[in-house]
Amino acid sequence: MVRESLRDWHIVIMRPSHQAQPLIEAVIVQGGEPLLLPLMEIQPLKLDERQFANAIFAAKKCSHLIVTSANAVFCAPREVLDVLQERGIPIITMGKATTQALEEKGLRVFFTAPKGSTSESLLQQSFLGQEAMSKQNILLLAGEGGRTVLADTLQERGAKVTWLKTYQQKEEKIDVAKTLSTWQINKHFGFIATSGRVLKTLCHLIPLEYSSWLLSCPLVVVSERIALQAREYGFQYIFIAKGPHVDDIIIALQEMAQLCTMT
C-alpha cells in the first residue's frame, strides 16, 4: 500500500469502539486523520436457564454449524463452544475474521466464505444444496436483527434450522449534531459504513442542516447491498471495498482519495 495516500483526509469510522482500533491505526499509517463515530455498540445477549439448556441441546444435536460474524463467536457461551469443539462437526463461516475468532476458541472450520461473499453466494456451495441439506440439523450462530435468507433457504431445502442469537446491536447515545459542530467540515471527509444498520442510523441521526454535506461526502461500503442502500439515501460518491477487512477498506479509501481529490 502507498503510504500517506490519505494525507489531508478526515476518515469517519463508525465501527463499535472495541473493533475500530485496527482500522484507526491503518488510516493513520496512510496519513489520514481517523474520527471515531461509534453509532452502534455490541451487547451480548444473556440466556436464561431454559435458553441455555436449549442452546446446549442444539449444539449436541446439530449436523452443521454456520456462523455469520465474529461478534457471534465473541458473545457465544463458552459451554456451547466447548460442546461444538468436542463434536467436530462441519463449521461454515461468512469470512476470515469469523474463522479466526473460532480458531482462537479452539474450533476448526470446514469452510470459510471468500472475500465479498453474501448469504446468496454461500448458498450456491454444493454442501448446502438441496440434496446435502435434506433432513440435516443446522445451528445458526448469529446476532439479532440480521438477514434471514440463509435460514429461510436452508429450511426450503429440507433442513431444520435452529437459531442461537448471541448479541444485539444498540444505538450509542451520541449527540451527532454536537460532534459535527466540532469538525471542520470544509475539509476532505470520507465515511466508512460496514453495515446497513450503521448507515441507516447515521442518516437518521444527522441534523437536517448537515444532510446535504453528508450526501456529498464520499462513502466507502463493504458490499453491493449497502451500496444500493446508500444510493437510495442519496449519496453521490460511493466506493465498494472487496470486504470488511482492514486491507480491503484501506484500498477503497485510497481509490476514494485519489478520485475525489482530482474532482
Regarding CATH, which class of the largest domain?
Alpha Beta
User: In CATH terms, what is the fold-level topology of the largest domain?
Assistant: Rossmann fold
User: Could you describe the largest sheet, including whether it forms a barrel?
Assistant: 6 strands, mixed
Please list the strands of the largest sheet in the order they lie side by side. 3-8-7-4-5-6
Helix content: 40-55%
Output the structural class.
Answer: alpha/beta
Query: What portion of residues belong to β-strands?
Result: 15-25%
Q: What is the number of beta strands?
A: 11
pLDDT < 50 stretches: none
Radius of gyration: 20 Å
- Element pattern in H and E: EHEEHEHHEHEHHEHEHEHHEHEH
Instruction: Report the total helices.
Output: 13
- Overall body shape: elongated
Counted up, domains total: 2
How confident is the prediction overall: mean pLDDT? 92
N- to C-terminal distance: 22 Å
CATH architecture of the largest domain: 3-Layer(aba) Sandwich
Which key terms come to mind for this protein?
11 strands, alpha/beta, 263 residues, 2 domains, single chain, six-stranded mixed β-sheet, Rossmann fold, five-stranded parallel β-sheet
Description:
By secondary structure, this protein is an alpha/beta fold. It has two domains: 121 residues, Rossmann fold (3-Layer(aba) Sandwich), CATH 3.40.50; 127 residues, Rossmann fold. The chain is built from 13 helices and eleven strands. The chain has a six-stranded mixed sheet. A five-stranded parallel sheet has the order 2-1-9-10-11, sandwiched between helices. Helix 1 packs across helix 13 and helix 2 packs parallel to helix 4. The longest helix has 17 residues. The radius of gyration is 20 Å and the shape is elongated.
